[in-house]
């Protein structure tokens, strides 16, 4: 093949084109031929190491027309790796699609639930333009409940599942003060940490003490109310009865001094001639002088306890 070339004089010259032997062909990129088990093993290893970027490159290197394409799309390790990569790339729509469209084993629920909630938290924070508080996160959880593919449906109470709380209560009834060995055993049985187990026992003891004090105060109050009710049922003299008794006492004293003959009759007896009343004798000034002098002296010295004559 000859290619025309313009020379300095303006004429065209011809020279042979370079031979193809000088540019050897580039060898094709070798296709990865991993089996589905090998792909799952690599995904698990990279996931445990925490190298998400390398995990992403490995997933992208897999051929689209893999011979076991359908099997890979159903493998839990591969699906979990794809969800992890989507989460770290903030591709939350892809993350939600993977989690909602595939059922995962119970051992993967905790990690996938954390990614589900954190993804919704980040979207809500970006939408509101501020970090979320505890109340905001609670509203997000209520608005976007976890799918049943990563949740067994068991409700959580006070951050612990009811099954875990039941087991903790059983151990608490046996020993409210477990030693470190028992705490580790209980932590292994419940999936909690020994610190969480210790904090639960401590809080439960405090609640029981507070409840005991409250019950004691209520018992004392009930006993006091019962005594007051018993006294009321036994009966106490009323004001009318007291007045009646006082009237009887006054009548008794009046009757004792009214009739010397001991008669109880209310009728007035006739007065005889011998019992005719005579007017009282008027005292003269000489008889009143000592009494007036005593009265005058007592007024002159009011602070003394004795009267000076």
Automatic annotation (TrEMBL):
Gene name as annotated: SIX6
Highest rank taxon of the organism: Eukaryota
Keyword set, alphabetical order: Developmental protein, DNA-binding, Homeobox, Nucleus
Record lineage: Eukaryota, Metazoa, Ecdysozoa, Nematoda, Enoplea
Chain coiled-coil ranges: none
UniProt record similarity statement: Belongs to the SIX/Sine oculis homeobox family.
Name the UniProt record assigns to this protein: Homeobox protein SIX6
Residues annotated as domain Homeobox: 151-211
SUPFAM superfamilies found in the cross-reference section: Homeodomain-like (SSF46689)
Compositional bias per record (Acidic residues), positions renumbered to this chain: 238-265
């Amino acid at each position: 093949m000859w290619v025309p070339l313009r020379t300095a004089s303006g004429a065209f010259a011809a020279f042979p084109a370079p031979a193809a032997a000088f540019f050897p062909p580039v060898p094709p990129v070798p296709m990865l031929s991993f089996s589905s088990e090998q792909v799952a093993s690599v995904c698990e290893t990279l996931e445990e190491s925490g190298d998400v970027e390398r995990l992403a490159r490995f997933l992208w290197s897999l051929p689209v027309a893999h011979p076991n394409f359908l099997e890979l799309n159903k493998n839990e390790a591969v699906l979990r790796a794809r969800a992890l990569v989507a989460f770290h790339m903030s591709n939350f729509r892809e993350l939600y699609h993977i989690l909602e469209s595939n059922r995962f084993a119970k051992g993967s629920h905790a990690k996938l639930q954390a990614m589900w909630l954190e993804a919704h938290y980040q979207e809500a924070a970006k939408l509101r333009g501020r970090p979320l508080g505890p109340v905001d996160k609670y509203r997000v959880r209520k608005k976007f409940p976890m799918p049943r593919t990563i949740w067994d449906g068991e409700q959580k109470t006070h951050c612990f599942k009811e099954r875990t709380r039941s087991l903790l209560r059983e151990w608490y009834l046996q020993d409210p003060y477990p030693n470190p060995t028992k705490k580790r055993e209980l932590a292994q049985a419940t999936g909690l940490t020994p610190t969480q187990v210790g904090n639960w026992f401590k809080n439960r003891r405090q609640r029981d003490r507070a409840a005991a004090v409250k019950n004691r105060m209520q018992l004392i109050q009930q006993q006091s109310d019962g005594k007051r009710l018993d006294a009321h049922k036994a009966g106490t003299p009323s004001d009318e009865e007291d007045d009646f008794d006082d009237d009887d006492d006054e009548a008794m004293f009046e009757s004792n001094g009214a009739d010397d003959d001991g008669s109880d009759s209310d009728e007035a007896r006739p007065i005889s001639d011998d019992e005719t009343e005579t007017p009282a004798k008027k005292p003269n000034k000489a008889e009143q002088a000592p009494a007036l002098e005593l009265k005058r002296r007592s007024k002159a010295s009011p602070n003394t306890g004795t009267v000076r004559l």
